[in-house]
């Protein structure tokens, strides 16, 4: 047995050695394989532990007015962040860091203690590059910098409601910044870096993907007109003790919104103490009953029907009309018992307008208003824009027919109202509205007879220029067409109207001979001199329209004729003077 075991031992020994040699060979082959043939495996695992990609912020697109004036620009800023675990080990430098950041040391230390287990926390965002670098130069352990962009609005509160603003992460949150966020936002890039196990930057390797800047956006707004509208609207609120107001100007040929001002407003560059009510773009979001400003639209329906002509007469005496339990009254005292159609507009007769509406029917007026854009989406795509309400009935009762004809029972926005007047000014052609600069005149739709539109242009000119017209809306050197309106404010949450609360309005266009600009002015709750649209809103219309026509270099159409100079008789020498030519 001993001899047999001794004979087997060398065989076992050789087997063990062979197995060991096989294992060593396998390990050696794996090492060679990883370093020579499968090098990418080790590289990938090494990179996964040390290579990081830092985002490169993208420059947001520039927003300009129609003439290239900047309205929203992106400026580089530095954001400071900290690794709480690292910063907690340097507590002796917290007070120094708090002083550099301009923060109260005790509150700052408490904040750092709460975040001591976190690997990322913001210290401060939006510093200028110089301020950020000065703090980074302190070399406080765990404090790092990040390049970002911050939006700046050169026109400030003047264009706040149109442009809107971005949040701290440079994403659009209001206005055109939100509506065109995808267009304006760029594509962030990537920078490849090496970091150690503590997350500290070792080496900036390369730019893996370049950042792609956002695209620029040219608006239809004319900053000159915007400043003018903003100034005059603000002054009007102060002069009349009003609560709020809106003013919209559009180009009747192209549908471009040239100015859109609202009061109260806010500064988008400083929103620390912002009143949310001031952020509302009232011209697009607030709806109201337009009152007498829709009488020209109802009158257009009457002319379009073929049943009425401007010279037709309507009896309006005694200035009131009973419809069931409702009484329709004329606010102003009319001259005489009868008025033609132009006289109804000049005197703003509810009785006369109601009688015409009874003749043509509520459906005709509804159809005309709908074709002019009331109760319809304007297509501007502005965030939060409302479409108002244009009521329709299967069978139109007399009361609803009458109130619709003179501007009650429906609700509109200032933008819808100015668009309707632009159609009148554009000879009955409706062109789509736009907030971006139009490079060509868009195709329009003929929604009203050209003859009817031209007739209404002349009638509305008389509303401003007639002896009993809205003379405060007149513009020196130009013929102006328009209509004032005054409407009671509906009470919130209950039926009926708020006592002594009115909206004063004026809508019109100029020059009447070849209209180029349409404008609407809405003043909310004037409380000083009065509340009628012809008294409160018409002067604002006049001042802004006068400035706009001059700034746009539109030729006057109402200049007095030139006076021929008086000929002067030539003087001749008096040869027979009594002094004989002596002095």
UniProtKB/TrEMBL annotation:
Reactions accelerated catalytically: Preferential cleavage: (Ac)2-L-Lys-D-Ala-|-D-Ala. Also transpeptidation of peptidyl-alanyl moieties that are N-acyl substituents of D-alanine
Per its UniProt entry, what is the enzyme's top EC class, as one word?
hydrolase
Q: Residues in domain Penicillin-binding protein transpeptidase?
A: 245-545
GO molecular function per UniProt: penicillin binding; peptidoglycan glycosyltransferase activity; serine-type D-Ala-D-Ala carboxypeptidase activity
State any GO CC term.
plasma membrane
Where does it primarily localize?
Answer: membrane
Alphabetical GO biological process terms: cell wall organization; division septum assembly; FtsZ-dependent cytokinesis; peptidoglycan biosynthetic process; proteolysis; regulation of cell shape
Task: List the membrane topology term(s).
Answer: Single-pass membrane protein
Q: Which residues form the active site?
A: 292
| Boundaries of every Penicillin-binding protein dimerisation domain copy | 55-204
Nucleotide-binding as a keyword? no
The metabolic or biological pathway listed in the UniProt record of this protein is: Cell wall biogenesis; peptidoglycan biosynthesis
According to its UniProt record, the EC number is: 3.4.16.4
User: What are the record keywords, sorted?
Assistant: Carboxypeptidase, Cell cycle, Cell division, Cell inner membrane, Cell membrane, Cell shape, Cell wall biogenesis/degradation, Hydrolase, Membrane, Peptidoglycan synthesis, Protease, Septation, Transmembrane, Transmembrane helix
Q: Which Gene3D superfamilies match?
A: 3.30.450.330, DD-peptidase/beta-lactamase superfamily (3.40.710.10), Penicillin-binding protein 2a (Domain 2) (3.90.1310.10)
**TM spans (from-to):** 12-32
**Cross-referenced InterPro entries, in alphabetical order?**
Beta-lactam/transpept (IPR050515), Beta-lactam/transpept-like (IPR012338), FtsI_transpept (IPR037532), PBP_dimer (IPR005311), PBP_dimer_sf (IPR036138), PCN-bd_Tpept (IPR001460)
Where is this gene product found? Cell inner membrane; Membrane
Write down the superkingdom of origin: Bacteria
- Region entry Disordered, spans: 562-583
Q: Which family is annotated?
A: Belongs to the transpeptidase family. FtsI subfamily.
* Functional summary from the UniProt entry: Catalyzes cross-linking of the peptidoglycan cell wall at the division septum.
Protein name as it appears in the record: Peptidoglycan D,D-transpeptidase FtsI
Give the organism the record lists. Answer: Aquipseudomonas guryensis
């Amino acid at each position: 047995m001993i001899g047999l075991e001794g004979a087997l031992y060398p065989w076992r020994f050789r087997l063990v050695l062979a197995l060991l040699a096989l294992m060593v060979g396998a390990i050696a082959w794996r090492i060679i394989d990883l370093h020579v043939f499968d090098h990418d495996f080790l590289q990938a695992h090494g990179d996964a532990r040390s290579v990081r990609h830092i985002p490169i912020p993208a420059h947001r697109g520039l927003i300009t007015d129609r003439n290239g004036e900047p309205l929203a620009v992106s400026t580089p800023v530095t954001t400071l962040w900290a690794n709480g675990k690292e910063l907690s080990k340097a507590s002796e430098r917290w007070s120094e860091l708090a002083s550099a950041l301009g923060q109260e040391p005790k509150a700052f230390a408490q904040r750092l203690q709460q975040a001591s287990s976190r690997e990322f926390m913001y210290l401060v965002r939006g510093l200028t590059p110089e301020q950020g670098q000065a703090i980074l130069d302190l070399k406080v352990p765990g404090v790092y910098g990040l390049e970002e962009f911050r939006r700046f609005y050169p026109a400030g509160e003047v264009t706040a409601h149109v442009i809107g603003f971005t949040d701290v992460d440079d994403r659009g949150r209001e206005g055109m910044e939100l509506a065109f966020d995808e267009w304006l936002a760029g594509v962030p890039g990537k920078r490849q870096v090496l970091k150690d196990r503590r997350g500290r930057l070792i080496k900036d390797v390369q730019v893996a993907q370049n950042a792609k800047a956002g695209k620029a956006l040219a608006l239809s707004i004319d900053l000159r007109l915007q400043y003018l509208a903003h100034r005059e609207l603000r002054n009007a609120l102060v002069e009349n003790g009003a609560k709020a107001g809106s003013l919209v100007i559009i180009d009747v040929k192209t549908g471009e919104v040239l100015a859109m001002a609202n009061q109260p407003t806010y500064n988008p560059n400083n929103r620390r103490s912002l009143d949310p009510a001031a952020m509302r773009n009232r011209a697009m979001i607030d709806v109201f009953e337009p009152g007498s400003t829709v009488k020209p639209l109802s009158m257009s329906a009457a002319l379009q029907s073929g049943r009425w002509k401007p010279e037709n007469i309507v009896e309006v005496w005694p200035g009131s009309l009973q419809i069931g339990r409702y009484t329709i009254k004329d606010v102003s005292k009319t001259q005489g018992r009868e008025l033609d159609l132009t006289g109804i507009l000049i005197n703003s007769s509810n009785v006369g307008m109601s009688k015409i509406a009874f003749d043509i029917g509520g459906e005709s007026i509804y159809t005309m208003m709908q074709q002019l854009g009331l109760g319809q989406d304007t297509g501007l795509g502005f965030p939060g824009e409302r479409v108002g309400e244009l009521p329709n009935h299967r069978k139109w009762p007399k009361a609803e027919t009458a109130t619709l004809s003179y501007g009650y029972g429906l609700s509109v926005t200032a933008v819808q109202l100015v668009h309707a007047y632009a159609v009148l000014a554009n000879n009955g052609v409706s062109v789509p509205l736009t907030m971006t600069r139009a490079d060509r005149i868009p195709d329009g739709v003929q929604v009203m007879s050209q003859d009817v539109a031209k007739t209404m242009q002349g009638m509305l000119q008389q509303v401003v220029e007639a002896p009993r017209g809205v003379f405060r809306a007149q513009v020196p050197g130009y013929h102006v067409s328009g209509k004032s309106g005054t409407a009671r404010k509906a009470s919130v949450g209950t039926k009926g109207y708020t006592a002594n609360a009115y909206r004063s309005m004026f809508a019109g266009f100029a020059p009447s001979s070849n209209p180029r600009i349409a404008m609407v002015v809405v003043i909310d709750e004037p409380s000083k001199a009065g509340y009628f649209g012809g008294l409160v809103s018409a002067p604002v219309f006049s001042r802004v329209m006068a400035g706009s026509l001059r700034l746009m270099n539109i030729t006057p159409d109402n200049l007095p004729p030139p006076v021929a100079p008086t000929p002067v008789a030539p003087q001749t020498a008096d040869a027979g003077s009594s002094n004989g030519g002596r002095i």
